[in-house]
Specification:
Shape: elongated
Strand content: 15-25%
Number of strands: 4
Structural class: alpha+beta
Number of helices: 2
Length: 193
Amino acid sequence: MRARRWESGAGLIIVILIIAFLIAIGIPLLVLTETGPKVSGSFRLHDEALNAAEAGFDAARRVIENHFIANEWVNFTGHYVTQPTNIDTPLDSGGNPNAAYFRRQTDQALLSAFDTNGDGTPEVSNLLFFQQTFALDGQGNTDTRWAYTVFLIDDEAGTGTTDPSDALMVCIGVVRAGTRILDSVRVEVKVGL
């Protein structure tokens, strides 16, 4: 009779160990399968923002080419974004990193700095495009979820030398849900004559 009690106790311990093992494996699996769609959604948003930035690059390249073809521009002088103050200068007067430099700003901070009162119209001059929508929805209307902003930066600003024959084109692509930015991508391309 004693052997039977020990056997039933051993069976209970084995069942408890199996359940503990299944829980230890099952919970991480549940968490993993739950985060998979979130990760893939994040990748999708990032790709959409990159597509918006690339659309901005294509549109800006055509605009710049047309200005040069029509002899409206002879170089990039006067077409760089210089506001907010020091946006184009990597170092301050003391040689320290400049906090206002565009590469030290988030995309959201740059867009807010261009449109300080939030009315959708930039207060900064020389932007090639600002929050330009480019895609259509299923009914043929402009879809405001995707937009790009494009501007030129003097890549020699603050160095003491100037070369008006080239510029750094900055394209910011955004994906929105209403007024909230879900993701953004910044593409920088050096352009020249």
